[in-house]
Write a sequence for this structure.
């Protein structure tokens, strides 16, 4: 007779992150889905997030803290009472299912076109340099990015206050916390990179100068809603949205890791730089060395086996999964049961299908669960 000892995979065990207790360590990564008509969360979005509440933590799609941070078509905001009330429906639905949810605050900075921003307001950025590449507009399809206005001292204070006010509204709307989007080439990362930050004042020029706005914003938000409900997303070596590599990437992210460690934030969400070669592996290790708090790692993670590797080695404390959550609302259950994953349709990731906005959004079914 043989006895088998089964241990629960680490990914399926509970963990507390800052002020929030999670049922497992599998996080739904933030994903823009462009279903927020008029930039206000709606009933379809409530249903979408409710369906995915078995994730240990949901991080919402990137959400604008201000009109001038709303660079994309149909992304939600959180800077009006109508948007707060819309998001409250989402957080209530997720909590009713036993889930937890953080708002991702995304100021798009120079990634914008005035056809997308409310009232055609100009985007703002560290420097008045248009990002290379095109952006979707519902009126005129793909258009070049417009040139942003460079933030002056008043502008810096105003944008920072918008992050703080949006974080406060997020707590009012029932979110468990907020994640500052300092990745993927949006406003906060635009400050970090000398390609998009050519300022000559205290917010540019050196590693410390370019990191200043990100760190000041994180501290300002943490002061108001608590560091244990404040988190951040970083993406070293990721060139997305016209963010070319530069000499001081490691120094930049080590500085951020150290200062965020001192601040005591809920978690640091790292888009895995190891996907960008040996230098990325080194950066990942350096961030882990200098940030001893909770790290969520993301990028191409698909199996419990890979998750076990990352969690048991201490490389990460949680893992985030993006694209598979689109077509597998019950992703955690499918992994637990060893069930196959469904493929999503990329044509409806950011746009409606022929039958409307629900297509490719709320119409992916859960698998039949065995137990
Ligand atoms: C449809 C889609 C929308 C996304 N939108 C966002 C976003 O709003 N904010 C963000 O930080 N990352 C966004 N991402 C990146 C994902 O969070 C994640 O980093 C990426 O998909 C890699 O993880 P994966 O391999 O598990 O999909 C998006 C990705 C996809 C596929």
């Amino acid at each position: 007779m043989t006895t088998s000892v089964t241990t629960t995979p680490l990914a399926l065990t509970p963990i507390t992150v800052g002020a929030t207790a999670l049922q497992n360590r599998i996080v739904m990564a933030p994903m823009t889905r462009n279903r927020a008509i008029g930039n206000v969360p709606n009933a379809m979005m409530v249903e979408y997030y409710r369906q995915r509440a078995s994730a240990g933590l949901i991080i919402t799609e990137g959400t604008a803290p201000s009109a001038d941070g709303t660079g994309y078509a149909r992304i939600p905001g959180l800077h009006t009472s109508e948007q707060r009330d819309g998001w409250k429906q989402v957080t209530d639905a997720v909590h009713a299912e036993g889930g937890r949810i953080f708002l991702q605050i995304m100021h798009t900075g120079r990634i914008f076109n005035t056809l997308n921003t409310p009232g055609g307001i100009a985007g703002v950025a560290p420097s008045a340099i248009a990002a290379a590449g095109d952006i979707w507009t519902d009126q005129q399809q793909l258009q070049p990015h417009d040139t942003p206005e460079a933030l002056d001292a008043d502008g810096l204070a105003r944008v920072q206050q918008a992050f703080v006010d949006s974080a406060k509204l997020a707590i009012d709307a029932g979110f468990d916390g907020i994640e500052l989007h300092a990745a993927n080439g949006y406003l906060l990362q635009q400050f970090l990179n000398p390609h998009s930050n050519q300022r000559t004042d205290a917010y540019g020029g050196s590693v410390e100068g370019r990191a200043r706005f990100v760190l000041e914003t994180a501290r300002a938000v943490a002061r108001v809603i608590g560091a244990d409900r404040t988190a951040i997303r970083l993406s070293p070596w990721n060139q997305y949205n016209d963010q070319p590599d530069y000499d001081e990437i490691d120094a930049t992210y080590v500085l951020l890791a150290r200062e965020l460690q001192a601040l005591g934030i809920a978690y640091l969400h790292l888009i895995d730089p190891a996907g960008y070669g040996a230098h990325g592996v080194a950066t990942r290790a350096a961030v882990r060395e200098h940030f001893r708090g909770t790290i969520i790692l993301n990028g191409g993670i698909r199996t419990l086996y890979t998750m076990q590797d990352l969690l048991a080695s201490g490389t990460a404390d949680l893992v985030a999964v993006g694209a598979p959550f689109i077509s597998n609302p019950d992703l955690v259950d499918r992994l637990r049961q060893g069930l196959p994953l469904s493929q999503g349709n990329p044509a409806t990731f950011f746009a409606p299908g022929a039958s409307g906005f629900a297509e490719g959004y709320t119409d992916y079914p859960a698998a039949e669960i065995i137990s």
